[in-house]
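Translate structure to sequence.
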């Protein structure tokens, strides 16, 4: 079973795959650093390109394509926007998301430990039908 977790916020997504005692991590950076200025705009205002979030989410979804089960984690609303993106744009991947949790900024080791506990605990299965 290929179990993965993704910690995502507006700046980056860290995708973790745990295998035995080791783990792999891939980081996808958001293009939100792109500054687009229009003539006459207030120079203190910045704008993201309209498709930046879509491209970011597309790239993150691509890193999760081989997952059988996905735990989605993050500090605020980006994880929920990513979930909505997946539900609309990649419905096959949506079926593999088994949990969505709020977590501020755990270390990689903390997230891997939580992921191991989550995927090997019966707690996540409470309320499911078998």
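Result:
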């Amino acid at each position: 079973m290929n179990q993965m977790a993704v910690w995502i916020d507006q700046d980056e997504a860290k995708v973790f795959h745990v295998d035995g005692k080791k783990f792999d991590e891939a980081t996808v950076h958001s293009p939100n650093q792109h500054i687009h200025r229009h003539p006459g705009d207030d120079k203190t205002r910045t704008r993201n390109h309209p498709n930046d979030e879509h491209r970011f989410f597309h790239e993150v979804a691509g890193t999760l394509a081989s997952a059988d089960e996905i735990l989605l984690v993050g500090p605020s609303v980006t994880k929920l926007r990513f979930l909505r993106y997946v539900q609309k744009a990649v419905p096959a991947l949506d079926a593999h998301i088994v949990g969505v949790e709020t977590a501020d900024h755990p270390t990689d080791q903390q997230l891997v430990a939580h992921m191991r506990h989550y995927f090997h605990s019966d707690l996540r299965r409470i309320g499911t039908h078998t």
